[in-house]
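User: tokens in, sequence out, please.
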């Protein structure tokens, strides 16, 4: 977006006004556009990207229900959710509106993949254009490979948790802000960047942190380098944010059923900031971080970026400066909130994953800059993207990394990108005209790409060296993110369970009156397997404490307090449903529907029970 003096950018600008008339000259452009647009599909097959990620917590499914049947959720639970933070999933419309529209147009599973394709394009198209303008087409391809081979981004895209949207929106926005272009095109890129940041704000709470940080970096760079029309640009940013927010409110009313999502979002934030809540969600210490190696990736990339562009600040090209500062500032904000505040920005992988869009963009810029000496050679300039593609393919051949933490293996691997960046800079400075020097340069570039990408990939996928719980974490029972299987992993069972879960609202049926609460009861031994299904109705808040079929005094107290009209029995076997029904005799239970859902290896036994003691006449 900002002016740059890079040769590639000047070349791009000098040809901008050229009228291309021969049909033959348009074919390369058409083929290039098709290659970029189809790259997520190609990467899916070439890299064997896992099509869906495991829902290891109920949180993703809590968003799935607002995609599949939001009206029923508002009818059943608005009154009981209002006093807490539990309406916050319905407010994340930057994710929910596109996902809901895709569901209405294509259905549950096809809509899921259409939405992910949309998110992938939002991330890779601006990144490709940025790197292409700065360094050429091979560098643009390199940016696509970096983004589409990241296990963190793949895992984020793989569930209905809104980090899938935030990671794409923020990466695309920063690329738009950094885009080199003529002054007349600057407002267009600014509008697109502002729109993406606004969508990220209304996708998840951490989106506000990332969006405000990215906008602040853009304004700071403009203040230091080019203040022309800055006030107008700031007004344009604010205008786009306000206009798009209003448009989202209208869209939310029509496709989700809630016009005002701002007040519920602010109310949920205030509730979560209460000391009692932060004690539950935030780590009491810092020792846990030493066991989570993937958190070494951001500082490693930032340090490698700094070594690559070590020079006087004024000499760093503006686009690269915007990317580097945005990446650094975002990680610094997340680090501050984690270790000096009370927000679990790094210990909760659903939060930390949102950093990886810009981290990947910074890595792509770093690699492209280090391999710039090869850009004048028609064949050698394609070596970096080819080798970068080979790294995840080699990992897939034997995806087994032994567990380790920060010290010593983690620290050593995190240092490799920094050391290689320094060596490659020296090699680039010392290149000569002799063939021996050229061969050394190619070898150095190849080693740099493979070494940096390989070490960062290992850091990302390595298992935790200690079994959960990690020391000092508040949410000690949360499983580790499933990054190791993002490349070459199977999603068949996950897809089966997603389809069963998405079909659950059809079985349960819609509420017939306001406040017709539905609660769940299932065997606790099957919780991990049933997570995608029980998350649909906000487990564990809407489930009995004791596992089916044991009914305790705590369950009795819960039932008397909540007074649910319906109880949903769930199990993978259906065993002891009759026993559970007898335990509810005091509530006048009546079974209105039963079924066994099957899809592939996934099996779900369901009974819908109306409780006559609490249901209004005609319920069920």
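Assistant: Sequence out:
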């Amino acid at each position: 977006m900002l002016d740059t003096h890079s040769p590639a950018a000047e070349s791009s600008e000098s040809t901008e006004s050229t009228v291309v008339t021969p049909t033959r000259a348009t074919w390369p452009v058409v083929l290039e556009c098709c290659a970029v647009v189809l790259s997520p599909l190609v990467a899916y097959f070439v890299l064997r990207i896992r099509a869906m990620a495991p829902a290891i917590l109920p949180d993703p499914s809590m968003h799935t229900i607002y995609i599949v049947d939001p009206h029923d959720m508002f009818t059943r639970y608005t009154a009981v959710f209002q006093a807490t933070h539990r309406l916050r999933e319905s407010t994340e419309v930057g994710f929910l509106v596109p996902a809901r529209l895709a569901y209405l147009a294509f259905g549950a599973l096809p809509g899921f993949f259409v939405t992910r394709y949309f998110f992938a394009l939002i991330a890779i198209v601006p990144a490709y254009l940025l790197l292409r303008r700065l360094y050429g087409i091979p560098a643009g391809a390199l940016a696509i490979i970096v983004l589409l081979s990241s296990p963190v981004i793949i895992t984020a895209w793989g569930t209905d948790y809104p980090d899938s949207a935030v990671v794409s929106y923020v990466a695309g926005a920063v690329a738009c802000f950094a885009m080199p272009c003529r002054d007349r095109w600057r407002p267009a890129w600014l509008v697109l960047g502002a729109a993406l940041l606004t969508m990220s704000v209304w996708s998840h709470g951490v989106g506000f942190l990332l969006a405000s940080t990215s906008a602040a970096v853009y304004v700071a760079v403009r203040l230091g380098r080019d203040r022309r029309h800055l006030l107008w640009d700031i007004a344009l940013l604010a205008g786009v944010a306000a206009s798009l927010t209003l448009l989202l409110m209208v869209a939310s009313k029509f496709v989700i059923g809630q016009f005002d999502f701002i007040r519920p979002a602010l109310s949920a934030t205030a509730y979560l900031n209460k000391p009692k809540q932060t004690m539950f969600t935030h780590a009491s210490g810092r020792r846990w971080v030493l066991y989570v190696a993937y958190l070494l990736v951001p500082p490693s990339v930032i340090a490698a970026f700094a070594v690559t562009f070590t020079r006087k600040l004024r000499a760093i090209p503006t686009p690269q400066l915007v990317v580097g500062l945005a990446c650094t500032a975002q990680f610094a904000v997340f680090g501050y909130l984690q270790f000096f505040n009370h927000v679990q920005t790094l210990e909760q992988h659903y939060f930390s994953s949102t950093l990886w869009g810009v981290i990947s963009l910074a890595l792509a810029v770093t690699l492209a800059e280090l391999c710039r000496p090869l850009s004048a050679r028609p064949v050698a300039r394609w070596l970096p993207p080819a080798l970068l593609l080979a790294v995840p393919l080699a990992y897939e051949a034997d995806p087994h990394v032994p567990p380790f933490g920060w010290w010593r293996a983690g620290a050593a691997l995190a240092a490799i990108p920094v050391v290689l960046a320094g060596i490659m800079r020296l090699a680039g400075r010392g290149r000569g005209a002799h063939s021996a020097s050229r061969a050394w340069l190619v070898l150095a570039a190849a080693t740099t790409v493979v070494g940096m990408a390989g070490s960062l990939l290992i850091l990302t996928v390595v298992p935790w060296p200690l079994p959960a719980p990690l020391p000092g974490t508040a949410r000690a029972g949360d499983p580790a993110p499933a990054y190791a299987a993002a490349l070459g992993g199977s999603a068949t069972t996950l897809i089966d369970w997603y389809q069963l879960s998405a079909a659950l609202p059809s079985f349960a049926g819609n509420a017939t009156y306001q406040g017709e609460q539905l609660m769940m009861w299932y065997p606790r031994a099957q919780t991990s397997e049933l997570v995608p299904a029980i998350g649909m109705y906000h487990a564990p808040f809407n489930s009995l404490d004791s596992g089916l079929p044991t009914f305790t005094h705590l369950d009795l107290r819960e039932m008397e307090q909540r007074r649910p009209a319906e109880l949903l029995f769930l199990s993978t076997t259906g065993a002891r449903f009759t026993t559970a029904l007898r335990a509810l005799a005091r509530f006048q239970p009546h079974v209105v529907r039963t079924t066994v859902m099957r899809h592939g290896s996934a099996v779900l036994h369901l009974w819908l029970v109306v409780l006559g003691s609490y249901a209004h006449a005609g319920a069920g």
